[in-house]
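hey so u asked for the seq, here:
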Amino acid sequence: MMKTAQVSGEKIIIKEVEDLKLQGRKGAIVKVLGCGLCGSDIVKFKHGIVNDGTVLGHEIVAVIEEINSETQFKIGEKIVSSHHIPCFECTFCKHGNYSMCEHFKKTNILPGGFSEKVYLSEEHLKYVAHKVPNSMKDEEISFYEPLGCCIRAIKRCNLQKDDNVLIVGLGSIGLIMAEAIQAMGYNVCACDILEERIKLAQEKGINSFNSINLESFDKIIREKTDGFGVDAVFMTSGADKAIDVALKVIKMGGKILVFSSTPNNFGYANNEIYYKELVVMGSYSPSPKDLKDSYDMLVEKKVDVKNLTTLYDLDRIQEAFEDTIKNRIFKAYIKIS
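ran it, C-alpha cells below
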C-alpha cells in the first residue's frame, strides 16, 4: 500500500491505495521525494474544480524504483519531471502552441504528485524528465516546471533588447519570472502590495515597488521610462486590480502578457486596448524545449530559488494548503519520501 493526498470536499485527506507496479508497461514507477504546491493546485482545490478522490500535484522530484524504458534512465537515479507531453503532430504543435494540444491536456503523472509513488510514461521519460545533479536541493529543482512556464511566457512576448518590463504580482511565479527576465538581459522591475514580497524580491536583486497607490506608482514608472511607460507588462497576479496597474503604466503600442487566471473572469478594457494599440496575449504551459531551458537555468544558478520554500511532511499537506491560501508562506514544498 502507499499513501496519497486526496481532495475530499473542503479538505485534503491522506488515504492509502494499492501500491503501483509497472505490470509490463513502458515507463517507470518512481518514488516521489517531494512535490511543490502550485497555484493551479490551490485554484482547483479552493474553487471545487476537481472531484473528490483527485490527487493533485505535478512539480515532482523522484527516484526511479522500477523501469522498462528505451531511455538512458536507471533504477536509483533521482529525476525531475513535468506532467504534460505534446503529440508534436497536431495543428497546435506544428504552430508551436504545444499547450493547446489535446494529447498535452490529457497526459499526466498518475495518480498525481502528492503520492508516495507515481507512474511516468515512456513519453515522460523521453521528453520532460531530467536527472537531478547532486548540487541541487530537491526543493530547488522542483521549480523546474514553474520556471518552464515563465520561460514560455517570456519567449511568447518576443522582447527587444532595450525593452522595459514590469511584473505585476510577486508571488513565487512573479519572482522567478522577474529573475528569468533579468537573467536574459532585459530591464525588469516588479510591483506588489505586500511589503514582505517586495522586500524578498529586492533581496534577490529585483527592483521592486509597492503599487497600492496607483498614481504614485505610475509616477515612478514614468520617471524611469522617460515618461513613456513600460514596453511589456507580465500579469502574474490573479487579483482583479492587476489589469488596472497594467493599463496605467503600459506604453502605447506595448504588450500585456496574462499569466494568471482570475476568480471572477472579468471583462477587458476594450477602449484602452484599442486606442493605445496594445497587444494582449496569454501564456499557459511550457514545451519540452522550455523545460530544458528551465532545467539549465536552475542547474547553472542563473535563477536564484534558494530559501523560497517552506517544507511540510505529507501528513501536514492540509496545513500547507491553508498557509498558502492565507499568504502565510511564499511557496510550499511537500516532502513525501
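Residues 73 and 183 are 30 Å apart (CA to CA). The chain has a mean pLDDT of 96.
lmk if thats what u needed
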